Amino acid sequence: MGHKNKEGGNKNKTATGGEAINKATGGKKKKSTGDASSSSSLPAPSVIFNPKDVTDPFELLDMSIAALHDKRASASPRESALSSLAATLERVLPLDESTDARPLVVFALCGASIKKGNTTSPTSGKEARLAFRAVGLLALTLLNGGSTEILAESFPMLAKTLQFAPAMEAATVIAALDCLAAVTFAGALGPEEAERSLKAIWSVIFPNPKFPNAVSTKVTPQVLATAVSTWTFLVTTASLTDAAQRKSERAAWTATVASLASLLDAADDRAVRMVAGEAMAVCVELNLTQHASRKDMEAVVARVSDLAAEAGGKGADKTLFVEQKVMFRQILAFMERGERAPTVAVRTTSSEKKEMIKASTWAKIAQLNFLRRFLGGGFLAHVKGNKMFKETFDVGADEKAALSIAKRKLNVKLKQKQKVMKMNRELSWAVKNVYCLPQGAQPPESNKPDQLLKLGWH
Predict the structure, then answer these.
(1) Per the domain annotation, does 368 fall within a domain?
(2) What is the average per-residue pLDDT within 392-410?
(3) Is 175 inside any structural domain?
(4) pLDDT at position 278, please?
(5) Which of 9, 29, 233, 416 is a plausible cystine mate for 370, CB 3.0–4.6 Å?
(6) Residue 14 — pLDDT band, cuts 50, 70, 90?
(7) pLDDT-above-70 percentage for the chain
(8) Count of domains in the chain?
(9) What PANTHER family does UniProt report for this protein, alphabetically (predicted)?
C-alpha cells in the first residue's frame, strides 16, 4: 500500500488517471536482460513533460502530477508542471476529494516544492510561488470539505513564510499572502480560524506588537499593498461584527483602526494608501469602528479629506494620482454623508448581451478586487462555475450580497459527509495511489491518506 512500483500502479486504471505516467514516458517498457542486478542499477528515465497538444484538463492534471513526482526532474520541468497545474485549476475542475486521490497528491507535491524555496535560502524561487498559487486554487476548487484539511495542514508553513517576510523575495511573500487568503476563505469554518490568518497577515504590515502603529520598513510597498488587500478580503468574509462588539475585543479593534489610520499617514506609496483607504471604508461599513473614539475618527476623516484633495505639484510622482483622488473622494462622501459606495461593474461576456457582475458596497468591492487579482484569467470561469462564488457574483446577483465564511459552518450533515469521505479514502487508497507516494522505505503510517497531507508540509 503506497509502495508499489510505477508499473504495478499503472496496472490499476482508475478514475484518477493512472495512465498519465505511461503517457508521459511514451508508454514503453524496457526489455528484460535477464540480469536483475544490472538492470536495477540503471537510473530510470525522467518523465518528459510536454503538455502542448493536451486538451483534456484531467489528462493535463495527471501529466503535471507525474512530472512533479519525478525526483530526477530539474527545476524547469517542475515549474512548467506547476504552471500547467495552476492553469488547469483555473478552469474549475470538478474535483471530488471523497473519491479522487489527486487533490491529496497535488497538495503534498506542492508542499514539497514550497519547502524547496522556503528553506534556508533568503530568496525563494519561481517553483515555490507557482506552488503557493496552485494550493490556493486547489482549495477553492474542492467540492466536499477538503479545503478544511488543506488549511489545517498548510497554515503552519504559510505563517512561518510570512514571519520571515523581510528576508524573502517579495514575489514569494505576495504568493504566500494570496494563498493564505484563498485557503482560509475556502477552508475556515468560523471566525476563529479566520482571525488566526488575519493576525498572521497583520504581522507583515505591523511586525512589532510593542509599536502597533509602526509600519514595516523591511518589506516592499507591493508586499504591504497585498497584505492589506488580503487582510481586508478576509475581514469581509469572516463576519467579525459580533466579535468587535465583545468587551474583550473592543480594545483590539480600536487599535486596529488606529493602525490603519497610521498607514494612511505613513505609507509613501499611493497603492498602499488606496488599499488602506478601502480597508478603512470596509471597517466603517461593517461597524468595526463603533468603539473608536470620536477624536480618532475625526482624524481619519481629516486625513481622507487631505488625500482626496492632494495636489500634484510640478515634478511630483503622478502614479495613481488621479485614481487616488477619485477613490478618497468616494470614501470621504461615504464617511461624512453616508453616501453609498460607487457601483463597480465587471463585464462577463464578449457577446452583445453585455452581462455584468455588479458590486455596490465597500465589502463586496474589496472581495471583487481580490478575486480578480488572485484568479486572474480564471476569474470568469470561477464566478460562473464555482459554487463558492456563483450565488454572490453571478450575473444578476444582489449587488450588496457578499461572500461569508459563516455560511459554511459545520453542521451535522457536513460532519457525516467528512467522516464518510475519510473512510472512502482509506478503503480505496491502495487502488487510487497510482503515483506511488511516498517513494522509498517509509514507515507504515505513511500509507494512510491523512499522512500524505503532511508529507510535503511538515
Answers:
(1) no
(2) 67
(3) yes
(4) 96
(5) 233
(6) very low
(7) 69
(8) 1
(9) INTERFERON-RELATED DEVELOPMENTAL REGULATOR, OS02G0219050 PROTEIN
What's the CA gap between 153 and 20, in Å, rounded? 27
Which residue range is the domain that position 414 belongs to? 1-28+45-186+410-458
SS (H, E, C) the chain: CCCCCHHHHHHCCCCCCCCHHHHHCCCCCCCCCCCHHHHHHCCCCCCCCCCCCCCCHHHHHHHHHHHHHCCCCCHHHHHHHHHHHHHHHCCCCCCCCCCCCHHHHHHHHHHHHHHHHCCCCCCCCHHHHHHHHHHHHHHHHCCCCHHHHHHHHHHHHHHHHHHCHHHCCHHHHHHHHHHHHHHHHHHCCCHHHHHHHHHHHHHHHCCCCCCCCCCCCCCCHHHHHHHHHHHHHHHHHCCCHHHHHCHHHHHHHHHHHHHHHHHHHHCCCHHHHHHHHHHHHHHHHCCCCCCCCHHHHHHHHHHHHHHHCCCCCCCCCCCCHHHHHHHHHHHHHHHHHCCCCCCEEEECCCCCCCCEEEECCHHHHHHHHHHHHHHHHHHHHHHHHCHHHHHHHCCCCCCCCCCCHHHHCCCHHHHHHHHHHHHHHHHCHHHHCCCCCCCCCCCHHHHCHHHHHHHCCC
Asked if residue 415 is part of any domain, the answer here is yes
Nearest to 240 by CA among 193, 207, 281, 273: 193
Residues in the chain: 458
The Cα angle at residue 300 between residues 296 and 302, in degrees rounded to 5: 115
